[in-house]
Amino acid sequence: MEEIQWVIEKEIGRIDKVLAEKMRKTRSQAQLYLKSGQVTVNGSVVKSNYKVVENDKVQVQIPKMKAFKVESENITLNIVYEDLDVLVVNKPQGMVVHPSVGHSTGTLVNALLYHIDSLSGINDVVRPGIVHRIDKDTSGLLMVAKNDEAHLSLSEQLKDHTSLRRYVALVHGNFSHDKGKIEAPIGRSSDNRKKQAVVAGGKSAVTHFKVLERFGEYTLLELELKTGRTHQIRVHMTYIEHPVAGDLIYGPRKTLKGKGQFLHAQTLGFKHPRTGEFLTFNAPLPEIFEKILKELRDNK
C-alpha cells in the first residue's frame, strides 16, 4: 500500500478538485478515491464536496498494482448499443466478464479491448470499462463505460438504485404467490467462504419477483434488482427454497440440463451520462433457455 500525504497550504476549495490537481488525476478518478474511503482529511474520511482549508492534513492510500497485461482478442461480441460514451453488450452464457486467476483469456474485457478504441480507466487495466458484472454462467445485458465521466455517472446510478436491471429466471418449485419482494441481507457464507448467503449483519439486499409462468416442478420468474449484491438472485432464490434451475453451487445437483443456471439479464435501463435521456434495452432469451421452456410447455 502506497501512502501519499501533504498539508494544505494555499489551496482552498473542494477536496476532489484539490486532489485531482495535486495527484495529476482526472476529477472522476479523484472522486473514486474519495468514495472508496481511500482519502482522509485530519484522520477522517470525507466526501467529494468537503472544503479543504489551510493546515488540513490530507492522506491518500493507494494499493500497489501488480503488473498485469490484458491482451485484446478477436472474440465476437453481440453489441446492442454503442455511442461515444457507453456500450451495451449482450454477454453469452459461459463468458467471464474480466480477467482473474484462472481466467486470463477469453473474457469480455479481452473482447472489448479488440473491438473498442476507448474504455474508461477507473477500474485499472484488468477491468477497463466494466461498471458492473454478471456471473460467468448468467447471460444478458451489461453496460460498459467508454470514458471516466460516463463510468462515474453509471456507477452513481447503480449506487442510487436508479438504473433498471430486470432478469428472467427458471427456478425449482411452484410459487404460491404471483408477485412479491425478498428483503434479506447478504454476506459471505460462514460455511463456505467462496459462497454468499443470507446472514445477520450482511449488506441490505432487495429483489422483487413476479411469476410469468408455472410448470408444476418449475416456475418462470421476472426478477428486478433494487440492490446489486454478489450472486444476489441466486442466493435469494435458494433462501426461499426455490433455487435457480441449473445452479449447481446454490441449488440441487439434479436439475435441468444446460450450461449453467437458467438466469438471463433481459432488461437494462439507465440515464445516459451525457444527454440525460433514460435508455432501455432488451435481450432475447438464449436458445438453450427457449428450448427448455418449450419442453416444459409441451409436457404440461
Task: Note down, in words, how this protein is organized.
This protein is of the alpha+beta class. The protein folds into two domains: 2-62, RNA-binding S4 domain (Structural Genomics Hypothetical 15.5 Kd Protein In mrcA-pckA Intergenic Region, Chain A), CATH 3.10.290.10; 79-298, Pseudouridine synthase (2-Layer Sandwich). The chain is built from six helices and 17 strands. It has helices at residues 15-23, 27-35, 108-115, 148-160, 232-239, 287-298, and strands spanning 2-7, 13-14, 39-41, 44-45, 51-52, 57-62, 79-82, 86-91, 139-145, 164-172, 179-183, 186-188, 196-198, 206-214, 218-225, 263-271, 278-282. Strands 7, 8, 9, 10, 11, 14, 15, 16 and 17 form a nine-stranded mixed β-sheet that branches. Strands 1-6-3-4 form a four-stranded antiparallel β-sheet. Helix 1 (15-23) crosses helix 2 (27-35). The longest helix has 13 residues, at 148-160.
**Element order, helices and strands?**
EEHHEEEEEEHEHEEEEEEHEEH
Number of helices: 6
Radius of gyration: 22 Å
**How many beta-strand segments?**
17
CATH class of the largest domain: Alpha Beta
> What's the number of domains?
2
In CATH terms, what is the architecture of the largest domain?
2-Layer Sandwich
Low-confidence stretches: none
Query: End-to-end distance, in Å?
Result: 59 Å
- β-strand percent reads 25-35%
Short structural summary:
By secondary structure, the chain is of the alpha+beta class.
Please describe the topology of this protein.
Elements: E1 2-7, E2 13-14, H1 15-23, H2 27-35, E3 39-41, E4 44-45, E5 51-52, E6 57-62, E7 79-82, E8 86-91, H3 108-115, E9 139-145, H4 148-160, E10 164-172, E11 179-183, E12 186-188, E13 196-198, E14 206-214, E15 218-225, H5 232-239, E16 263-271, E17 278-282, H6 287-298
Parallel strand pairs: 9-16
Antiparallel strand pairs: 1-6, 2-5, 3-4, 3-6, 7-8, 8-9, 10-15, 10-16, 11-14, 12-13, 14-15, 16-17
Helix pairs in contact: 1-2
